[in-house]
Write a structure and sequence with these properties.
alpha/beta; 23% helix; Jelly Rolls; TIM Barrel; 502 residues; 2 domains; 10 helices; disordered N terminus
Length: 502
């Protein structure tokens, strides 16, 4: 779930507490190199220790029942209510000005009381970029705020001002987390998505409706041979770097689709891709290098794995070459480090080789697991499901659970999955009067509807994502409704139908 940002005011702590905030207790060991993205708080679970957390005079800090317990001594009468007198915190946090962060934690106390939570600097004049007074009770409560940092420093603090207690008070903290560039802070919206370009270039009365419902929520950008301006290698690397960098500057998580495999879409409406295996490896190498180890989700080659089982599409040496290219892509994306999560496309729930919806895995599920394994899924985070299709989230999650179990059983691969929810609000199209007809009408079918916008997953999915940009046509072939635009072209008519569910 995404959390709404809150308003905050930059405050300065009184100078008299400067010494308190700059004298942390000795750490048990030197802190590791601090991260810039992802989880910034070290040892926020306090399972057995309170390493990296310190307390100023007037408080003892210990791990009790898997929580940090701050035992706060009573304050002199004239200091009651002055929280800043005693502080528990962690320093060495790398903050970047203008970047989005989320601070969250659980807290309770041995009696009803107040404390103050801040993200700030520990040097005079002790500016804060987030400051909140908390009402604590004897029952643990979850606190969470998403904010944009006004500060830039390699020595930011997560501080809990717990002083000024009238009597001895135990403050319990748990699951302390400060993150950036994760799903919690939100997904980066492509400012140049096809819907937004249409909105900004038209006076059509539908523009406001389409902007609010679609253009403002298109959080995935597709990259293919159309990005290879000039020299293909430097062109795609520069495009990816620019996109991922813009997301990182906002503390948001970008989602990219790599879609350039030779023989793409088996010569269908979205045909194209690199000229050959060597060109593809150059392209995907440059694509990966453009990410530069920054946070990103990558959807790798929609349909390429599933279509590799169709001898009418690809076979023989070409098939082996495809496995090799996908393996290479997974390998080089994995080399970008832990902030990059790759999801190799696993088709959809009602694909010919997908799940038997009667509940039996069958040879189809085994075959899909085999194809994914041959394509290097063991090096990926997992698989993407339902890309550019319409199956409901529940049906897709059923498939995801079964496919993950098959990969684990057959190959020892621990695979997660993401679901494309862009157009699955009404589920898959079926022939009217024939509910057993399954997934038909893949090209711009009527009666489809927008699904939930990009967010953390449910039902086993790691994320629910708008992967297909709503309003972009599936193609203009004979299988498509008359008047359909070419594949990838934005259509306000298709967009409005998805908004209205007709």
């Amino acid at each position: 779930m995404r959390h709404l940002p809150i308003a905050f005011t930059a405050l300065a702590l009184p100078a008299l507490v400067g010494a308190l905030l700059t004298v942390p207790a000795p750490a048990a060991e030197a802190a590791p190199e601090q991260a810039v993205y992802g989880e910034l708080a070290r040892n926020g679970a306090f399972s057995t220790t309170t390493d990296y957390w310190w307390g100023t005079p007037g408080v003892s800090v210990n791990s009790v029942d898997g929580m940090l317990r701050a035992a706060v001594e009573p304050a002199p009468k004239e200091q009651v209510g002055q929280w800043y007198r005693t502080v528990v915190g962690q320093n060495g946090i790398k903050l970047r000005q203008g970047v989005t962060y989320t601070l969250s934690f659980d807290a309770k106390a041995s009696r009803d009381t107040q404390i103050k939570s801040t993200v700030q600097l520990g040097t005079d004049p002790y500016p804060t970029t987030l400051a909140n007074v908390l009402d604590l009770t004897t029952t643990a409560k979850r606190f969470s705020w998403t904010f944009t940092s006004q500060l830039g420093s390699d020595d930011g603090h997560i501080d809990f001002q717990v002083g000024g207690q009238a009597v001895r008070t135990d403050i319990d903290l748990d699951n302390v987390s400060l993150t950036t560039s994760t799903a919690r802070e939100g997904f980066y919206t492509d400012p140049a998505n096809t819907a937004m370009k249409w909105v900004q270039g038209t006076t059509d009365p539908r523009a406001a409706k389409i902007k609010a419902a679609i253009a403002d929520h298109n959080t995935v950008k597709w990259f293919g041979n159309w990005d290879a301006d000039g020299d293909a290698t430097t062109g795609i690397q520069a495009e990816v770097s620019k996109y991922v960098g813009a997301a990182a500057a906002q503390g948001k998580l970008p989602v990219l689709v790599a879609y350039d495999i030779p023989g793409r879409d088996c010569g269908g409406a979205s045909s194209g891709g690199s000229a050959d295996a060597d060109r593809y490896k150059q392209w995907i190498d440059a694509f990966a290098q453009g990410i530069e180890r920054r946070p990103a989700l990558v959807i790798l080659e929609p349909d390429a794995v599933a279509q590799s089982s169709d001898p009418g599409c690809i076979s023989g040496e070409a098939l082996e070459a495809r496995f090799d290219m996908l393996w290479y892509a997974n390998q080089h994306l994995q080399a970008q480090g832990t902030y990059v999560r790759t999801y190799l496309d696993g088709g959809n729930a009602t694909w010919t080789l997908g799940q038997d919806l009667s509940g039996n895995g069958g040879i189809g599920l085994q075959r899909m697991a085999y194809l994914l394994n041959r394509s290097g899924v063991s090096m990926a985070r997992g698989v993407s499901i339902g890309v550019s299709n319409f199956d409901s989230t529940d049906i897709s999650n059923q498939y995801g659970n079964k496919l993950a179990a098959q990969l684990r059983t057959d190959f020892g691969v621990d695979a997660r999955w993401v679901v494309d929810t862009a157009r699955n609000g009404n589920g898959a199209y079926v022939i009217p009067g024939d509910p057993s007809s399954g997934h038909v009408g893949f090209c711009n079918p009527a009666g489809r509807k927008l699904g939930v916008t990009s967010r953390a997953g449910t039902g086993g999915a790691e994320y629910l994502l708008w992967i297909k940009n709503p309003g972009d046509s599936d193609g203009d072939s004979a299988e498509c409704p008359a008047g359909s635009p070419p594949a990838g072209s934005f259509s306000p008519d298709l967009a409005e139908r998805l908004i209205d569910g007709r």
